[in-house]
Amino acid sequence: RLKTINNNPALLFTDASNTLNNTLKLADMESFSFFTVCQENDTLAERVIISLENDSTAEMVLTNRRMAALDVYRYLNYNEGQKTYPKIYSYIQNKSSQGEAASRKMQFGRAPGRQQLPVAAYNGLIPEVILFNRVLSNNERRQVETYLALKYGISLSQDFPASYLNSNGEIIWDAETNASYNRNIAGIGRDDLTGLKQGSSESTQTPGLMKISCINEMKNNSFVIWGDNDRPLRFEDDSGIRRLLRDWKICSFNSDACSLDIEINELSFHDIKPLRKDEIYWMMIDRTGKGNYPFGQTDYYPGQTLTRESGIIKFSSVEIDADSSGSDIFTLVSAPSLFARAIVLSPSCNEEYSGNIQTEVAGGKAPFTITLSGTSKSGYHQSININTRDHVFENISQGSYMLHLSDANKEIFTEEIWVSNTRSWESSIRDS
Fold first, then answer.
1. Which end of the chain is more exposed for a tag (fewer CB within 10 A), N or C?
2. 366: DSSP letter
3. How many percent of the chain have pLDDT more than 70?
4. DSSP-based three-state secondary structure for 88
């Protein structure tokens, strides 16, 4: 039976009677490189994925818990806890000729017949097997692993920084540059040399959380890859709005400002009721790729909840890498359909009126009326009418303020802002 992993077909193994009876004959190959992807259905028993036998004995057994080189009595146990998301396995053999070469064969999903091993038949999915008749270099291995990782939504282990490489050997995801966003890496892309054409993808390590699709067909050797910082999927207050703690970094390679549809499932959030009354989800994108969401370099995209039952929020036609810097950072915020994000630049103690309040408007229809009034210092009052979505209020001193925003459709947003001096904890102590 056929199932799918990340939109790609996979062969389902259920028990010994359904294993792949046709073995893979390796003739007298002494050196080869082998790769496969597997997703097990349960983790209770140790199950055989692949075994390698010669004419007289079993040489290697790959299970869901270990790699066993039986001919030399070497074993490699997997440190990672037993989980049912897909994994990439590789096996490299390089043996020198010792007399008459043995004819080798691989069989899938069952234990070798010549040994009595305490293992069960495989129960799960195997979508792909790749075999080379030689030992690949480290870079070549990484190219094959990148192909499999992107195709099946698998994050390559980052215990040691592992960059992703295309078929030309070019770095398309830099592990060191993106070290703070090295969890749940996935991507879309096209690489004609390897046959990769993945236009829609999600991380199979966070199934159902986020799916990203390219609206138009991608050109050869173009990629969009993302990873997250593994922060909780929970909202917290931030500058008058509520922001998701988790950030994603998304990098483009040769993709020319790709336009994406992004679907996120709110049922994956840790908050029971993430939205308050009259709020919607927004995607907030930092175009600098640094994660500070600075004034004038942050974009906002409203989300549409497709159905309340599914919990799917869709962000349509999201432009990625609009400034051609190579990367963006994004997160979600919950806010009204019209809101203003206020960024405070605090005044110093030495210059009382040296502060600024930077405001960015999201949603609504221009022109906008923005009013800032001092509530602790009643003398401050400024009101402007603008067609743009950003404005800076200058000559701000320490105190509390009320921001009032309205648009052409008479929608209203208000926010209370507190401004404090910088270095207010410092004091000057005169030498005695």
1. C
2. S
3. 91
4. strand
Of the CA atoms within 13 Å of residue 86, those in its CB half-sphere come to 29
pLDDT tens-digit profile of 95-106?
A: 765 555 567 788
> pLDDT tens across 353-379, in order?
899 999 999 999 999 999 999 998 668
What is the DSSP code (8-state) at residue 17?
G
- 252/109 Cα distance (integer angstroms): 38
Beta strands in 153-221 (DSSP E): 164-165, 171-173, 183-191, 196-198, 200-202, 210-214
Cα distances from 414 to residues 86, 156, 334, 341, 357, in angstroms, run: 47, 45, 15, 11, 15
| Residue from 250, 225, 246 nearest 235 by CA | 246
Instruction: Say which residue the tokens 């056929």 belong to.
Output: 2
Would you call 259 exposed, middle or buried from its count of C-beta atoms within 10 A (0-12, 13-18, 19+)? middle
Residue 348 per-residue DSSP state: B
- Band of residue 190 on the pLDDT scale cut at 50, 70, 90: very high
Structure-block tokens of residue 261: 């549809």
d(CA 147, CA 37): 11
Collapsing DSSP to helix, strand or coil, 397 comes out as coil
Torsion 71-73-77-83 (CA) sign: positive
Report the DSSP beta bridge partners of residue 336.
279
pLDDT tens, position by position, 299-349: 999 999 877 778 999 999 999 998 888 999 999 999 999 999 999 999 988
In the chain, the percentage of residues whose pLDDT exceeds 90 is 63
- Written as one string, the DSSP assignment of 19-67 is SEEEEEEEET--EEEEEEEEEES--SS-EEEEEEE-SSSEEEEEESSEE
